[in-house]
Amino acid sequence: MRKFTLKPAALYIITGMLTLLLGGGCLLCRLYLSSMEILMYVLIAIFIAIWFILGFLLLPMYFRRTVIFLSPTEITLHTGIIFLRRSQIKLSSAQYVTRISAPLSGFSGFNFLVIHALGGSLILPFLSISDCDELERAIGAVICGEEPQK
Amino acid sequence: MLAYTTRYFWLLIIPLARSLYSLTFEINALRVWLQGAWLDLIVLFAILGFAWLRWISVWVSFDSEKIILRKGLYISSEDTVFYSNISTLSITQNFLYRLLGASTVYIGTNSGKADQADLKMILRRSDADRLYEELKGSRKKSLNYSILPNKLRLIVFSLFFSSALSGVLIILALLLEIGKIVDREVEARLILDTLNEAARRVSLYVPPIITVIVIVIISAWALSFISNLFVFWGFVLTKCSDSIYIKSGVVTKNRHILLRDRINYIDLKQSFLSKVFNVSSLHLNCSGYGSAGRNELSVVLPITTRKEINGAIEEVFPEYPRPKIELKSNPRSYLSFFMMPLIFAAVPAAAFGAFYVFLPTWFEAAKPAFAISMIPALWLALCRALSMFTTGLGFSGDFMTLRYSKLFTFHTVIVPKERLTKIVIRQSPFQRMSGGCSAIIYTSSESRARHLILGLRMDRLLAMLEREGYDLYFREGK
Description:
The structure holds two protein chains of two kinds. Chain A has helices spanning about 10-30, 35-65, 105-110, 130-145, and strands at about 1-5, 65-70, 75-80, 85-90, 95-100, 110-115, 120-125.
């Protein structure tokens, strides 16, 4: 059994982007809603609350709770924030794999692996390139009928 | 590269080309044209530039065991498909692509994208050929068996059994495609002008409405006949131990490689006339073959005699038994068969009544249209009447046979028991009183495959299903 976790760099980048969005939103409020002070402060407060809940509670929780287990026969994804979800697919039912990568994904961890299997698909999010390669190799080995690595 | 442009490209280029064509040979005319069309030209070049970027971002590689398709400008997506998981590889070359030396490649797996290929790519002809050979090389080598339909028989049967309905469907699909690139108004005007012109010429002898209807039916039938010939001319099916290779087409050339153990079921399809004359065509259901999304038929053997079809089943699908019907529909349950034609007839009849009551002045003029609109309902009633005596199901070894009609087509489906996914027994209040029922059999397929068998006796069906190991716990439920 091999365990994979999500790349933390992705979390830092998303939080950074959220902070930039917050800054932009607050600036726009200051520029265009200065005549309606109450509305401006309410909106800024909402933006900060969203930023805090997403960036410091939900996303870190999601990154901490999402774990991928690769066994010789299955891939299992444990994820969820409020409702925990465990999804498992048999490697033998995998039909093909799609890897989606953003620019600079080697550094940012914006690599997603979609495993298309009989009757459904499983998305493995925010993986490092080496983890993507390893998972792809494991699935390829099972499809080709090679003995899976323990 | 044109395949990567959007339809707005065609919306722009057609009026631009038209206005350029109507220019006089003066230097000022070109300047005036440029002053009016500069924005359109910029958008056109932007679309072409973006299409070029999309085109150069597609990268395909394949070796002896897998194919990798990478695409995307900013966010790249990479699909890896191993040959052992490819249910169907289809390579098609339409007339334009043949001139340009290109081919469209579709790859279908069992991963469940309904009615569309998992992967679609446009490759150079030579690259598509290499991919075809690589996949062929990955399959088991064995003694091959080929089937070539008799061409004379194909012409004769296509002539007599081509359906005007499928011609209408082809016209609709064609109009839909044209509609994507040409204005709806232009499209409608084109059709109406053509029909009006034809009707005007013979209006001295025959009423215009009848002329128009006859023209539509004859042209739909002729189109269906010609398209059948074009698709199935040069049809060759080669069976190997683990795969089936199919080649067909004159204008658009098609090649397919199907993995035999991915075939869900085989289906003998017949129209009313072909049922009466005992000819049929053999189809199969396999992921990626005959996808509705690309107007393709899942044919194994084009229309021919029943004897040839049986021979083909024995050679290509030796494990499949001859169709065997154990439980036939009960003719007393005629109501379930004629419900659909009654609904079909009710709509024009209601409109007919409404005209009679509310628009009596239009009533006489609308009579021929109502008469014509009743034809599908009558035809369906005729199909259903025949179907009442042929519908049924049965088991033979590890296979199930389902014989039923769906709208105007008669089906005889032979499906391995392992591919049955769900069995539903449905009873209407009338059927509950008479002890009848309808069986709905669901089979594995990339899209929903539902077979409805009407008018069965409930007790006999339950006994037969129980014998085959499908206990639906009806008795415990009571």
